[in-house]
Amino acid sequence: MTHFRDVPGDTKVYLNGEFVDWKDATVHVMTHALHYGSSVFEGIRCYKTPKGPAIFRLKEHADRLYNSAKMYRMVPAEMTVQQMMDAMIETVRINKFEECYIRPIVYRGTGMFGVNPLNNSIEIAICCWIWGSYLGESALDEGVKVHVSSWNRLAPNVMPALAKCGANYANGQLIKMEAVLNGYSEGIALDTNGFVSEGSGENIFLVFGDRLLTPPLGNSVLPGITRDSVIALARDCGYEVTEGIVPREMLYIADEVFFTGTAAEVTPIAFIDKIQIGAGKCGPVTKRLQEEFFAIIDGKKEDKYGWLTFI
User: Fold this and answer.
1) Is 182 exposed, middle or buried (0-12, 13-18, 19+ CB in 10 A)?
2) Does residue 84 lie in a domain region?
3) Which residues are catalytic?
4) 109 and 163 together in one domain
5) Same domain, 242 and 115
6) Do 62 and 159 belong to one domain?
7) Quick one: which H or E segment has residue 10?
8) Residue of 135, 152, 154, 132 whose CA lies nearest to 143
9) What is the number of domains present in the chain?
10) What is the domain extent for residue 123?
């Protein structure tokens, strides 16, 4: 994990149309997002490839950011999806990163104070830094130990689960903290009907033979970009992929279970609630999908989907 004290102070941050030093990329203490969680954001990886740095699925991430902002009535009037993409590319370029994690965020700034945000400014920032394996360096091979959280994901019609909103991650923090304090790497949350939803910041897949099962978006699931990528790769490999309701007990009897996400990439789950999943490490289907995923990123296989945007 990255500690931000290790980020060089002269790393450039895009802030409302200008580039400033990391140490100067600050907000006022009365920023609306700080008090009311009024922010939407994305997590994007830029990979080192033989052809130079390449951002993974930039357009899809920019589209999702725009859609999240639209749901919360906070689309910046002066920034189109293309302009956001261009700004993210320039942020990586100006910092001369060969690989990095990119965090664009749109948030309510200062103005009127109170729950009503409509009179507050809309601010835009883009940061990038070096970020390694999210769930540990050995996680991709050995898998992680997780548990089913006591915290449920959002109920329908309370907050839009399809939006990647900062406020939603208060729930994710509770799931994550409970897991870590109980000795696990991550938690799996159920929805309000008791069906499997997702992790604190990852989508989830179950493997039964040559069939993959993942919860549908209606189970309070974020429409993950890596989730979508893995579905496409799995079908290319001849696996059947179904989006369907997942009862909790199916987690324990699956041949393999794995997380997907920009930070987690494709991470196998070795144990759930101390029950061993499969061989208790990365299984053959998960391994193959990892290999397919990284082959495109590493430039070893044709990017037939056009997922990479080269800097």
Assistant:
1) exposed
2) yes
3) 164
4) no
5) no
6) no
7) none
8) 135
9) 2
10) 4-129
